Each structure stands twice: as C-alpha cells, then as structure tokens.
C-alpha cells in the first residue's frame, strides 16, 4: 500500500498532533500535519485564511495539501478536523489506514473551551460542538478503518489503543 502508514482524523482538540507524534515515535516514522503544511505554504495562520477568504477557499487549499501529503509522506499523517467535509478529500482517503480519534461533546468542551485560534468555536462552544459533531461524526466514520475513543484517556493510552487496533 502506498501513502502514509497511518492517517489520523477527528475533531479539533482531540489530540491528533500529540497522539500522532507518539505514534510516529513508536513506529519509528515521521510525523506530518496538513495544518502545518498549509501554514508554511500560505505564510499565514489558518484563522487568517478563514477570515480573509472564507471556509470554502480554505477547504480547497486543504484538499490540495491532503493530496500532496498522501503522495509524499510515508509516516503518520494528521489531517485538520474539518478535512473530511470535502467529498474529494474523503475519496482521497479510500484504501488508506485511517484512524478516527473520537470524543464526546462534553470532553470536547472541556478540552478546547474558548480558543480564538480555532475560528469555528468562537461563540457558544457547547452548542457549536454539538452541531459540529452531529454534522461530522458520520463522515469521520465513513473514512475510518478504525475508531479509537479518547474520552478519559491519556495520549499514551490513545496511542497504544490505536496501535493495538490497526
Ligand atoms: C478545523 C480544524 C483545524 C483547522 C481549521 C478548521 C475544523 O484543525 O484545520 O481551524 O474545521 O475542524 P485541527 O483539527 O488540527 O485543530
């Protein structure tokens, strides 16, 4: 199978980068994150792209970043939390080993709270989280080959559960 060893998907704040780096260490592989690729390529913060160009433009940029990372990277790859909203991006994940890190709404509110760096959660985080999870859960499940719940688990425990599951 070509492409990364593992692709991590799941909502923002679920721990994709922390767990992803642990997994990369354990697998003796590199770690890559499409959010970081986008910031490096665009020379601006993701929140600035949202404000200046809107979410649709961001998703188009993100799709190209995912495409490139899937073809170039052979280690652990984490995608931005909303990457799965794009049907083309979901199609790119077919045949990959995709780990969905899941959490429930209360865990999400607890972990992220109000975070200005996360433009989708600017107001009323609990309501936003509920809507966001309802809209996205089935899409994460659609692309996932494995689901790893993270509620009440440390990053080390989540990484171990992911390794046991794949
Ligand atoms: C987003 C998640 C973020 C980032 C952007 C949009 C989302 O990534 O791509 O702010 O729509 O859920 P993380 O999941 O890495 O925070």
TrEMBL record:
Q: Where in the cell is it found?
A: Cytoplasm
Provide the function of this protein: Catalyzes the specific phosphorylation of the 3-hydroxyl group of shikimic acid using ATP as a cosubstrate.
Primary localisation category: cytoplasm
Q: Which residues are listed for ATP binding in this entry? A: 13-18, 118, 153
Keywords assigned: Amino-acid biosynthesis, Aromatic amino acid biosynthesis, ATP-binding, Cytoplasm, Kinase, Magnesium, Metal-binding, Nucleotide-binding, Transferase
Q: Which GO terms describe its molecular function?
A: ATP binding; magnesium ion binding; shikimate kinase activity
Q: Which residues bind substrate?
A: 35, 59, 81, 136
Query: Assembly state and interactors?
Result: Monomer.
Gene Ontology annotations of biological process type: amino acid biosynthetic process; aromatic amino acid family biosynthetic process; chorismate biosynthetic process
User: What does the entry's cofactor note say about binding and number?
Assistant: Binds 1 Mg(2+) ion per subunit.
**What name appears for this protein in its UniProt entry?**
Shikimate kinase
**SUPFAM superfamilies, per database record:** P-loop containing nucleoside triphosphate hydrolases
């Amino acid at each position: 199978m070509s492409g990364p060893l593992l692709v991590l998907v799941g909502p923002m704040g679920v721990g994709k980068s922390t767990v992803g780096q642990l997994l990369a260490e354990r697998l003796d592989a590199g770690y890559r994150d499409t959010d970081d690729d986008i910031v490096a390529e665009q020379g601006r913060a993701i929140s600035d792209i949202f404000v200046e160009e809107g979410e649709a433009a961001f998703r188009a940029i993100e799709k190209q970043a995912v495409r490139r990372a899937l073809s170039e990277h052979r280690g652990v790859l984490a995608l931005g939390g909303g990457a799965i909203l794009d049907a083309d991006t979901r199609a790119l994940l077919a045949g990959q080993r995709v780990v969905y890190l899941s959490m429930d709404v209360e865990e999400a509110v607890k972990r992220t709270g109000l975070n200005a760096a996360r433009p989708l959660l600017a107001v009323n985080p609990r309501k936003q989280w509920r809507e966001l999870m309802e809209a996205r859960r089935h899409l994460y499940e659609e692309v996932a080959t494995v689901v790893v719940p993270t509620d009440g688990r440390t990053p080390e425990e989540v990484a171990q559960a992911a390794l046991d599951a794949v």
